[in-house]
Design brief:
Length: 314
């Protein structure tokens, strides 16, 4: 059983949750990542006296998240999860790429303890910021007996990291888990769970063995009315290793992109398709169509293809 005496490690990477603005009513013109992990904790009296340790890994606006930060974050998470005195780890993050980081960690970490990502849509300087409650919930979840895997605590709900979808650009209820729904909700100081905790990573890709600068280059191209295959040809000529084509509907592609994808495959580039729709993903595979990654969003499919290519190089 996890107890209040065991440590919860907090790793801060920046984002709106740590953002501040010159005016309290400015909810979009703030500096993301202005506050350190220690400052975030100090602003929450409810966490006083708890066994917490903090580290500010980065102060990024998460739209600028990069592979080097992912690799460092994964390494630091592995080190803390291996410690018997650590109950779980909380990661504060920006919302723009939260679903990508949570997917990456879910696919590369064997997290038998909870790794809880949390974030905010309003900066810490706002009159009613949402970050403090999200952070309190995340620490509570990191101590939950039996909890495991990559989880996201946001807006009073718990999502599996692999299910996360960002639906809105500025509302505080910005996230969903699509068809899967939340794993649990916070209510009256407790947690009501609807389904099992996420499974551990299906395969821990060898990202720790490869310098981030050498990770395969995978880009996303979107299918749309009047699409041209020229962008695919240009990326292939520029040395891309893999392509994800975000198709319409159930992953359908404009015929010019289908032709360009075939040329890319003939040149040795791995090509998969996803759906640009936020829910549903791609179901089934018509004869002769490109491979797909099911319910994964284009951004998640990009990570999956990158990991697949990395594994093939071993």
């Amino acid at each position: 059983m996890q107890s209040e005496s065991r440590v919860v490690a907090l790793i801060a990477t920046g984002g709106t949750i740590a953002g501040t603005a010159a005016r309290a009513d400015d909810l979009v013109g703030y500096d993301a990542g202005a506050l350190s992990a220690e400052q975030l904790i100090a602003a929450l009296p409810a966490l006083a006296g708890q066994a917490l340790e903090t580290w500010t890994l980065a102060r990024l606006d998460s739209c600028d998240m990069d592979h080097a930060t992912w690799a460092l974050l994964r390494r630091e998470l592995q080190a803390r999860l291996a410690r018997p005195d650590v109950a779980g780890v909380v990661v504060t993050h920006g919302t723009d790429t939260l679903e990508e980081t949570s997917w990456f960690l879910q696919r590369t970490l064997d997290a038998a303890k909870p790794v809880v990502l949390t974030a905010a849509m309003r900066p810490a300087s706002a009159p009613s910021p949402d970050g403090p409650q999200n952070l309190l919930d995340a620490v509570r979840l990191a101590r939950e007996p039996g909890a495991r895997g990559v989880l996201v605590a946001f807006g009073g709900q718990v999502f599996a990291g692999a299910d996360l979808r960002k639906l809105h650009g500025w509302r505080v209820d910005a996230f969903s888990a699509g068809d899967a729904g939340p794993v649990a909700v916070f209510e009256d100081g407790g947690l009501r769970r609807f389904r099992d905790w996420p499974a551990l990573a299906l395969h821990a890709a060898p990202v720790g063995d490869v310098a981030p600068a050498a990770w395969p280059r995978v880009e996303i191209v979107t299918s749309h009315a009047g699409a041209s295959g020229r962008i695919v040809d240009a990326l292939v000529a520029d040395g891309v290793h893999g392509l994800v084509i975000a198709g319409t509907g159930n992953g359908t592609l404009h015929h010019t992109l289908r032709d360009a994808a075939a040329r890319a495959q003939a040149a040795g580039v791995a090509v998969v398709r996803a759906s640009r729709c936020l829910a549903g993903g791609v179901v089934g595979r018509a004869e002769g169509s490109l491979p797909q990654h099911g319910t994964a969003t284009p951004a998640q499919a990009r990570i999956e293809l990158m990991l697949d290519l990395m594994a093939r190089r071993r």
